Amino acid sequence: MLGRLRMSINSCIEEYRILSGDIFGHPRMAHFRSPIFWPRDKYDGKLIEHAVEKVVHRRMSAAERELGAGNFNSPPGLCRTVVFAYAEKISDDKTEYRYTEDKKSIDQEGSSPYLFRSYDHWGSGALPQSITERNPGPAHNIPIWQAARATTAAPFYFDTIEISNRKFGDGGFGTNNPAQEMYNEVSQMKGDDPSSIKLLVSIGTGESSISRIENGSFKKALGYINAARKLASDSEGVHKTMEQMKEKWEVPYHRFNVPLKFGLGKIKLDELKHDTLEKIEKDTTKYCNTIEKELELVAQILVDNRRNRSKSDMWSLVSTGKQYRCMVKKCRRTQELLPRESDLREHLKTAHENLTSSKINGYVQLGTCPPLHRSV
Ligand SMILES: [Zn+2]
Questions:
Q1: CA-based, 20 to 30 A from 162: which of 172, 182, 193, 327?
Q2: What pLDDT sits at residue 304?
Q3: Which residues of 49-73 are buried (b: 16+ CB within 10 A; e: fewer)?
């Protein structure tokens, strides 16, 4: 919601209130963890699909949706967003990105973290591919709800989902602390130069013990509980690694996670009581009051970065997604999106002779496009 739909924090909280009710308010009568055991997950994955579709509907104009803006890939220039999921390959499709030297796809791989990207990520091209490079390729042109389903598919809670030749959500609980994955992703895209990272902020959902996922007496359940336990420790492990990297690479890294003593971690993943959201807010505020200095420091870096970017001539694109195209009749470049107003003015002046400045202004107005997807 923050990244792909570019919503404000307040709008996100507002949507979460509706969304959590739409999803967690409708558990199945019988499931893995209900008094009457039934071997299926607690919630129907359709609930997420519908809830997310409703958010997209509320937060995007009809014109944007018509132009395919309801998909996860983002118009160029806008905020890059990543969603993590846990994937298992289900075919031996040899056209996949990953190859060994003898050109066989590595489909015997077990479940591994998978990134859904709103932007293109071209791989380093190194063979064999580095294991830290996750499924490079073009941006994911799939509906936003599919990315949401893939990242929320978790044993006991939501059904698995198949997208293209991968199955999501069966192998475990995925990447709970993706800070290190993000660090790798961004440095890989910037020529393996960690100094290109101006700030890395990791926000947790509250330190917790295993209690967030209920115990069960079935063997399968035990496997998942072990996976969940491992994940809780992995999450802290990642934090420790990042702390070390921060020293080594001088990456400004901050992790905010409400400690166990404030109680947030005791709230179940799908708890939906009349006061759950208020409790979340209260515990988080209590914690935030203890870390004011660090929060201010991070806010200052963010404000400085934004100020710097606002001086760039790409600011109009970055802040609004606006792009420009030539609308002069019979121009062969009408399908080409230009990132800056000045690019269109330059084109109008050089490619179309004898346009008066008022004509040029008219064409600039006519050729200003809302956030658009690439035409390819
Ligand atoms: Zn033209």
A1: 182
A2: 94
A3: bebbeebbeeebeeebeebebbbbb
**CB-based contacts of 292, cutoff 8 Å, min separation 6:** none
Dist. CA 174 → ligand 1 center (Å): 49
Q: Supply the pTM of this predicted model.
A: 0.78
* Distance between Cα 370 and ligand 1 center (Å): 19
Q: Where are the domains of the chain?
A: 191-311, 317-369
159 within 8 A of 44, measured Cβ to Cβ = yes
Please state, in angstroms and rounded to a whole number, the distance separating the CA atoms of residues 121 and 103.
22
Measured in Å, residue 237 CA sits from the centre of ligand 1 at 55
Q: Which residues pair with 179 in a beta bridge?
A: none
Overall size of the chain counted in residues:
376
Q: Using CA atoms, how far apart are residues 239 and 237, in angstroms rounded to an integer?
A: 5
Centre of ligand 1 from the C-alpha of residue 337, in Å? 11
> Among all chains, which residue has been given the structure tokens 């400004």?
252
Please give the Cα distance from 254 to 297 (Å, whole number).
10
> Which DSSP state fits 195?
G
Name the pairing type of β-strands 253-256 and 200-203.
parallel
